[in-house]
Design a protein that fits this description.
The chain is of the alpha+beta class. It contains nine helices and ten strands. Strands 1, 2, 3, 4, 5, 6, 7, 8, 9 and 10 form a ten-stranded mixed sheet that branches.
Length: 360
């Protein structure tokens, strides 16, 4: 099922940044109300599936997902998890391209080994200890790579709502697998891939609980598609469902089939919208709590702190048109040491020095 009622549906999904925009999109879609169709349990539904309609289906196909999704803690943590997922998507794309050329290629031993092999630079903070020419060459590589992953903070002045968009240009997923990957809980194929970062496949999903709506769009990179795989883009919208007469809310996404597959748009429509490949998560009416008023200023240090020494760099657009390079606090400290050393004409340290103290 394409489940598209307008030729610009994907474009509207990719650019929506407020609840009003989402609700305008929802109003155009053939959706069965959650009052008329719900998952009562893993095997029981409140009514029959209605062909040709979209239904709200639990994230992870788990009616009891509320407890696991509401694990966000600090609102910045789920965004960091989503960003790490984007880094993994970039690494996995490079690995799949390698295997396509050389099926017997030995897998990287760990994420940093993968980054060195596929992107050509070591731990980001270590480049500050190199001579100028080598450091500048590696920094150029880093600056090129960070264009493939971004975190964008937007603010809708009319509604006073914040939204956060995480966009990666990684491997992406085919629409038919999106519900088992990007919308799954605890399902993961990372355990036998030491070059990836996470294992359990759940961390980023807690962002759903911090937003009123979330939009998920994905498309497989064309050069790694298998002959029988879909070149279109899968999409869905996630929201909380509050069942009448029950206290156990759950998070659900729009599904096009009873098995949980998401709606899709054709390759031509994805091309028209400029969505080449990768994934985009947009979390709308994101609740930053008491930090709301200063979040544009706080996101840079907060994300650099949480992702202290990231394996891959990324861009941050915090209510700005020009991105801030995000290389982690470890790099910022290493760079500071280098600049102080250059200024002082000797090796320096950021640690405060103390005079010798008598003991006893």
């Amino acid at each position: 099922m394409t489940a598209s009622t307008s030729t610009d549906l994907l474009g509207r999904l990719l650019t929506a940044r407020s609840t009003a925009q989402i609700e305008a999109i929802l109003a155009t879609l053939p959706i069965v109300s959650p009052d008329d169709y719900q998952w009562v349990s893993a095997d029981d539904r409140s009514s029959s599936w209605r062909d040709g309609k979209l239904h709200w289906v639990p994230v992870g196909l788990d009616r009891g997902n509320g407890g696991r999704i509401k694990l966000a803690g600090e609102p910045m943590n789920p965004l960091a998890e989503r960003t790490v997922n984007g880094m993994e998507a970039l690494i996995e794309l490079a690995r799949l391209r390698e295997l396509k050329k050389n099926p017997g290629a030995v897998r990287p031993a760990n994420p940093r080994d993968a980054v060195l092999r596929y992107f050509g630079f070591p731990k980001i903070d270590t480049i500050e200890r190199l001579e100028d020419e080598e450091r500048n060459a590696l920094r150029a590589k880093i600056d090129e790579v960070r264009k493939n992953l971004s975190v964008t903070l937007d603010h809708d002045k009319k509604s006073k709502q914040f939204s956060v968009t995480i966009r990666d240009h990684g491997m992406g997923q085919v629409p038919q697998k999106m519900h088992r990957t990007l919308l799954s809980l605890g399902e993961s194929d990372k355990a036998d891939k030491p070059y990836l970062i996470g294992v359990f496949g759940q961390g980023g999903s807690s962002a759903f609980s911090v937003a009123e709506y979330s939009i998920v769009v994905t498309r497989r990179a064309p050069d790694i598609l298998k002959p029988d795989e879909d070149d279109g883009a899968g999409w869905s919208i996630v929201r909380a469902i509050y069942p009448k007469g029950r206290r156990d809310l759950y998070w659900a996404y729009l599904a096009a089939t009873e098995e949980g597959q998401v709606p899709r748009v054709s390759a031509a429509e994805a091309d028209k919208a400029g969505f080449e490949h990768g994934a985009q998560f947009t979390h709308i009416k994101y609740d930053f709590g008491t930090a709301d008023s200063a979040i544009a200023r706080l996101m840079y240090p907060a994300l650099n702190h949480v992702l202290f020494n990231p394996v891959l760099p990324y861009d941050l657009y915090a209510l700005k048109d020009k991105p801030e390079p995000m290389l982690g606090t470890a790099h910022r400290l290493a760079r500071r040491v280098r600049l102080i050393s250059q200024s002082a004409g000797r090796n320096a340290a950021l640690d405060k020095a103390f005079a010798s103290q008598a003991v006893g």
